Amino acid sequence: MPEFIVIIGRSILSFLILFVLARILGKKQISQLTFFDYVVGIAIGDMASTISIDPSMHFLDGVIGLVVYTALSLLFIYGALKSFKIRELVESSPSILVKNGKIMEESLAKHKLTYDDLLNGLRVQGAFSLSEVELAILETDGQISVMKKPQFQSLTPNDIGLKVSEDHAPSLIIVDGLFMERRLHYLGYSTKWFLDQIKKQGAKEIKDIFLAQVNSDGTVYVDLYKDDQKTQQENHKPQISAQLRRVQADLESVANQTNDRNAKQMYYNQSMELQNVINRINPYLKEIGAGT
After folding, report:
1. Contacts of 152 (CB under 8 A, 6+ apart)
2. Domain total for the chain?
């Protein structure tokens, strides 16, 4: 039998075996691999390639080597899940590189990191000055996690006492012409309302749409099969919800301005009651929007 036929056959078999073993090992992301995972992966890949192109190696011997490496890897993974000591041995543990704004030189030396490596990791996390950093940790996958000092952290609505409306991730309602009506109803929107919105954006029928999604603010995004047709993304959420939230914001503003404890508590109680009202009527507001 010609040698190239043998190589093709061995390559196909080793590829399939490697595929099966990789599936057994799991789906850990490349960015989450520890150094041990990386080295084991290289070793298994090198063994698989050797099986393919080295006719002097008995095929069964190579397969046994692959299975042994995979079994040992699984054993270490299982051990790391069950035992902290084994996990420390295999994956090590996160190390502090910057604490209270001060660089831990011993930790840098232990992990063979230079000052430039540290600064590069901080810049990736959006910290361009050491004076901004409260804590920096080297994770087991080699990434650097950063906690900035309070004065350099981004402001959130919660920091200023601002209440925001409940949010949900954008939901796909039509994918490649398939209408997921049950998902639409789960979000609290009617079929009639949704069909009205897609027609306003140039779609005559559902089959004209490649993709459509409903965003948390009530915006309907539509992508038509015919890209030359213009679509206009509009927000049709009822205005009454925004008006109620403005009233709620006014109540909280007055509560913050008054020095009377009883009055302050009264305004806050009214604000909370109004929030409950908004939560109860939100589903009905969406139905009202169906008629607009």
Report:
1. 127, 132
2. 3
d(CA 134, CA 148): 5
Shared domain check, 78 and 26: yes
Between residues 36 and 190, which one has the greater pLDDT? 190
Query: Are 124 and 78 part of one and the same domain?
Result: no
What span, in angstroms and rounded, lies between the C-alpha atoms of 16 and 26? Answer: 16
d(CA 62, CA 53): 11
Can you tell me the distance from the alpha carbon of 222 to that of 210, in angstroms, rounded to the nearest whole number?
8
Q: Please write the tens of the pLDDT for every residue from 197-243.
A: 888 888 888 888 888 888 876 788 888 877 665 545 444 444 566 66
Indicate whether 29 and 107 sit together in one domain. no
Do 77 and 116 reside in the same domain of the chain? Answer: no
With 0.85 as the threshold, say if the pTM is over it: no
- Enter the tokens of residue 145: 């996690």
| Mean pLDDT (the chain, rounded) | 76
The tens digit of pLDDT for each residue in 40-90 reads 788 888 888 888 887 777 888 888 888 888 888 888 777 877 777 777 666
Q: Check: CB of residue 290 under 8 Å from CB of residue 238.
A: no
Per-residue CA distances from 214 to 101, 206, 241, 256 (Å)? 44, 15, 18, 36
Task: Compute the distance between CA of residue 190 and CA of residue 92 in angstroms, rounded to an integer.
Answer: 53
Percent over 70 (pLDDT), the chain: 78
Q: How many residues would you count in the chain?
A: 292
Q: How far apart are CA 180 and CA 278, in angstroms?
A: 27
Task: Indicate whether 181 belongs to any domain.
Answer: no
As a whole number of angstroms, the distance between CA 188 and CA 283 comes to 6
Q: CA angle 141-143-147, nearest 5°? A: 130
Encoded amino acid at 89, one letter: L
Give the residue with greater pLDDT, 88 vs 166: 88
If one counts every other C-beta atom within 10 angstroms of the C-beta of residue 81, the result is 9
